[in-house]
Write a structure and sequence with these properties.
With 154 residues, the chain is an alpha+beta fold. Helices cover 39% and strands 15% of the residues. The structure holds FE2/S2 (inorganic) cluster (2 copies). One FE2/S2 (inorganic) cluster binds next to loops. Keywords: 2Fe-2S, Iron, Iron-sulfur, Metal-binding, Oxidoreductase.
Length: 154
């Protein structure tokens, strides 16, 4: 099936089997390797992308479902000022160790920071609960996100 969508702002047209997941289309057909293959069971969040601005697991959505939509991956987000600030804040706060979860966390956080300019720690924790990190503990990640949110208010 032919599927057309915007990928990081650029139009893409790709021929895929109807049962292909978006994660495979991104990584194997389009060479977009930022979304990582983790659990493949919609549990870990390493494959997170934004679909029309909302975080989704790309292992849990068929490519045909994104026809006509806008998909953002960490590659696009990292080229954006807000994405860069988030990545820097993760690094500064020590919220990155092995780094495997980081693209997913930054992608999810980007959507949060873009939509809300004031949130409590509890709201941040709730928002990122679909992303798992086995290295850092979550405090540093929450701090990294909080720093970017508070810098937006200045
Ligand atoms: S690989 Fe998609 S949620 Fe884990
Ligand atoms: S930094 Fe290793 S899983 Fe999060």
């Amino acid at each position: 099936m032919k599927v057309s969508f915007k990928l990081n702002g650029n139009p893409v047209e790709v021929e895929v089997p109807p049962n292909e997941i978006l994660l495979d289309t991104l990584r194997l057909r389009l060479g977009v390797k930022g979304p990582k293959r983790g659990c493949e069971r919609a549990e870990c969040g390493t494959c997170t992308v934004l679909l029309d601005g909302k975080p989704v697991y790309s292992c849990n959505i068929l490519t045909v479902q994104v026809d006509g939509s806008s998909v953002q991956t960490i590659e696009g987000i990292a080229n954006d000022e807000l994405g860069r600030r988030l990545a820097e804040s993760f690094s500064k706060e020590g919220a990155v160790q092995c780094g495997f979860c980081t693209p997913g966390f930054v992608t999810t956080s980007y959507a949060l920071v873009k939509s809300l300019h004031e949130v409590s720690d509890e709201q941040i924790k709730k928002y990122i609960e679909g992303n798992l990190c086995r290295c850092t503990g979550y405090k540093k990640i929450v701090d990294a996100i909080k720093n970017v949110i508070s810098s937006q208010r200045k």
